[in-house]
UniProtKB/TrEMBL annotation:
<dbReference type="InterPro" id="IPR051170">
    <property type="entry name" value="Neural/epithelial_adhesion"/>
</dbReference>
<dbReference type="Pfam" id="PF13927">
    <property type="entry name" value="Ig_3"/>
</dbReference>
<feature type="signal peptide">
    <location>
        <begin position="1"/>
        <end position="27"/>
    </location>
</feature>
<dbReference type="InterPro" id="IPR013783">
    <property type="entry name" value="Ig-like_fold"/>
</dbReference>
<keyword id="KW-0732">Signal</keyword>
<dbReference type="InterPro" id="IPR003598">
    <property type="entry name" value="Ig_sub2"/>
</dbReference>
<protein>
    <submittedName>
        <fullName>Lachesin-like isoform X1</fullName>
    </submittedName>
</protein>
<feature type="domain" description="Ig-like">
    <location>
        <begin position="239"/>
        <end position="331"/>
    </location>
</feature>
<keyword id="KW-1015">Disulfide bond</keyword>
<dbReference type="InterPro" id="IPR007110">
    <property type="entry name" value="Ig-like_dom"/>
</dbReference>
<dbReference type="Pfam" id="PF07686">
    <property type="entry name" value="V-set"/>
</dbReference>
<dbReference type="InterPro" id="IPR013106">
    <property type="entry name" value="Ig_V-set"/>
</dbReference>
<feature type="domain" description="Ig-like">
    <location>
        <begin position="38"/>
        <end position="123"/>
    </location>
</feature>
<dbReference type="InterPro" id="IPR036179">
    <property type="entry name" value="Ig-like_dom_sf"/>
</dbReference>
<dbReference type="InterPro" id="IPR003599">
    <property type="entry name" value="Ig_sub"/>
</dbReference>
<keyword id="KW-0677">Repeat</keyword>
<keyword id="KW-0393">Immunoglobulin domain</keyword>
């Protein structure tokens, strides 16, 4: 209601009243009233509120009588209220009073500038006062200009990811990986640490490797919700490497076979397959070229359908990026099947035995007993008699021969006795 009155006038009147009140006498005061000394009911509490909320600071006075209570800002000495009236022109400040005893100062939509001391003063002689402090909490906020953006670096370099945040109280910074994997850190000389989180503004990674690659989160928190985070991507570049789990793969004609290569590279490599010096293999009726990617790792697979004689041979997988290229080879050899175990295959065997003279001929009398082969080279009849056994032994032999391991150690004797 006082807002409708001319404010200057009101202020002047109130202030003069207040000043008058601090004087030694007031006409209306009886002697009895003057003898009563007001007392604060208790200390003014310290109030803590988050930014934007309302702060309520109570001043409770017993036996106020005809004295007046005023709220004054300690830092600026500005008079905020006197008795029942709001003096300040700060529209966010209001007062509720009751029973000539409770004077509650309300500060709505608090700002950081409201942080400080609030004095409740009584115009007694000498003047009586108490101070309560308003603390304004500010949720954390990451200062983008002072924080690292995405990083691209080479393996072996030292990297620092920085994150700075403001807020009140001072926020703490925690770094962690988005996938929650531990971060391998080298702290000082020889001190290694595997931790899923790191406390501090600067996350120093010395001699960065591909395992450090990924998304990092810098989380700023100071107990005032909400916490905030910033996502930083760390890209670690390195030339491609290849790993071939099976360099020698055997298969039967007519079958379908998959050849596998695993590559690692960043930037992401171009991956492809070739047969000997041929052209790049593309998916078609014969081949299916596929790959599964997981960050910097790629699992390459070449599927070859309905194997024919010309499909056997050497295949190569390639991985290339801007930093280099590499190649892996796989030899695909034919495992004779019972049905294809014909005179042709037998001829192959004869050949092989000539190529490796130390190796006893399959047709030797000793081996024939074991193989259930009566005479000469294995025949279709022989294989049908106990095809599984024969096939198994022949496959083993074939494998050894192709691997060029057919030396003294491996002879049919070993199998025969
Ligand atoms: C308020 O905080 C001040 C220091 O900031 C302290 O001296 C005073 O005792 C506190 N008041 C209460 C009621 O806790
Ligand atoms: C390691 O992680 C734990 C829990 O994640 C954390 O409390 C601790 O501060 C971390 N250590 C360092 C050195 O950051
Ligand atoms: C991190 O590296 C910076 C320089 O890049 C250095 O100033 C800082 O002291 C290092 N911090 C730690 C914890 O090793
Ligand atoms: C990277 O840090 C390691 C130790 O943390 C130090 O020995 C090496 O000299 C640093 N390398 C560069 C290029 O700063
Ligand atoms: C920051 O971290 C320190 C040490 O871990 C802790 O004592 C303090 O309470 C934290 N501050 C906040 C605002 O969370
Ligand atoms: C073939 O050989 C396997 C393994 O040695 C044996 O279990 C099986 O009984 C044999 N079959 C015939 C028909 O001789």
């Amino acid at each position: 209601m006082c807002f409708f009155v001319k404010p200057y006038f009101l202020t002047l009147v109130l202030v003069s009243t207040y000043i008058e009140d601090t004087g030694p006498s007031k006409a209306s005061n009886t002697k009895r009233e003057r003898d009563i000394v007001p007392v604060f009911a208790g200390p003014i509490p310290n109030v803590t509120v988050p930014l934007g909320r309302e702060a309520n600071i109570p001043c409770v006075v017993n036996e106020l009588g005809s004295y007046r209570a005023a709220w004054i800002r300690v830092e600026t000495k500005a008079i905020l209220t006197i008795h029942q009236h709001v003096i300040t022109r700060n529209y966010r400040i209001s007062l509720s009073h009751s029973d000539n005893r409770n004077f509650i100062l309300h500060v709505k939509d608090v700002k950081e500038s409201d942080r400080g001391g609030y004095m409740c003063q009584l115009n007694t002689v000498p003047m009586m006062s108490q101070i309560g402090y308003l603390d304004v909490l500010v949720p954390p906020d990451i200062i983008v200009d002072q924080s690292t953006s995405d990083v691209v670096t080479r393996e072996g370099t030292n990297v620092t990811l920085s994150c700075t945040a403001k807020g009140y109280p001072e926020p703490n910074i925690t770094w962690r990986r988005e996938d929650d994997e531990p971060i391998p850190l080298i702290l000082g000389i020889g001190k290694k640490l595997m931790n899923s989180s790191y406390e501090g503004e600067d996350l120093n990674i010395s001699r960065v490797t591909r395992v450090h690659m990924g998304a990092y989160l810098c989380i700023a928190s100071n107990g005032v919700p909400p916490s905030v985070s910033r996502r930083v991507l760390l890209h670690v570049q390195f030339p491609p490497v290849l790993w071939v789990p099976n360099q020698l793969v055997g298969a039967h004609a007519g079958e379908e076979i998959a050849l596998d290569c695993h590559s690692e590279a960043y930037p992401v490599s171009i991956n492809f397959w070739k047969k000997r010096e041929g052209e790049m293999i593309l998916s078609n009726e014969k081949f299916d070229v596929s790959s599964k990617e997981k960050s910097y790792k790629v699992h390459m697979r070449l599927l070859i359908r309905k194997l024919q004689a010309e499909d056997f041979g050497t295949y190569s997988c390639f991985a290339k990026n801007s930093l280099g290229s590499t190649e892996g080879t796989i030899r695909l050899y034919e495992i004779p099947t019972s049905t294809s175990f014909s005179r042709d295959t037998a001829e192959k065997f004869k050949h092989m035995n000539r190529d490796f003279p130390k190796h006893q001929s399959l047709g030797s009398s000793k081996s024939s007993r074991k193989f259930n082969i009566e005479k000469g080279l294995p025949s279709v009849e022989a294989t049908t008699r106990n095809s599984s056994e024969t096939r198994r032994v022949i496959n083993v032999l074939l494998l050894f021969c192709i691997m060029s391991l057919c030396t003294h150690a491996i002879t049919l004797k070993n199998f025969g006795e």
